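#onboarding

Welcome to the new folks! Below is a worked example of what a typical request in this channel looks like: someone posts a single protein sequence, and someone else replies with the predicted structure as tokens. Don't worry about understanding the tokens yet, we'll cover that in week two.

Example request:
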Amino acid sequence: MTEFLFGILSSLTASAILLVVGLLRGARPLWWLVAAYSRYTGTGLGRIYRHQSSAEENLARDLRRAHWVKVLAGRGNVLTREAFSPLWSEGVPSQSVQILLPDPDPQEDSWLDRRSHEVARFDPGFTQDLLRNQVRTNINYLARVTHARDGIELRTFNLPNNCRVIATDCVAYLTFYSASTHGRNSPCLYARAPGILYTAALRQFDATWTHARPALPAPAL
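Example response:
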């Protein structure tokens, strides 16, 4: 995780000034300039959404076009929302979908509990059991989805959980969780392939996937 974060920070250095200017310009910043400079520096950064939730319309578009999808999430609520509904529908092409969610019942020190305590500092209604139950609910949802289509794998992990990654064969959406706000209110980076950010996102997913355990039956071949 430390290596991943240092890689992200170093890759964003060259674009930092342009990004700040763009964010300060309001709802319609000069994203074309940011994208052009990102291509020049090799970061692949296309834009930044002020809030993760505001990226869902474009996320839905990219998911519909994807040949494969990888998701690393802190609780997985986005999987039950409209953005992902095309992936779960019967009759659609069965893209490969790999999903990583925190283990709601780990056998040792729980990173999910650490995040619960963190969120509870600014959201008094957020309890340890609430986050665990939300993850369990989303796992149960995905278990039902697998009855409708093939190609879905779910694993659970008990590792540092400081970011969300949603990646396809073309783009990646990255959100770094803050200690002072919910993930849905945190900025979301949009990165295109090829690029440093896109590669870093896939590396983070693959590293977590390797240390995670299956939570659903293996997909049909």
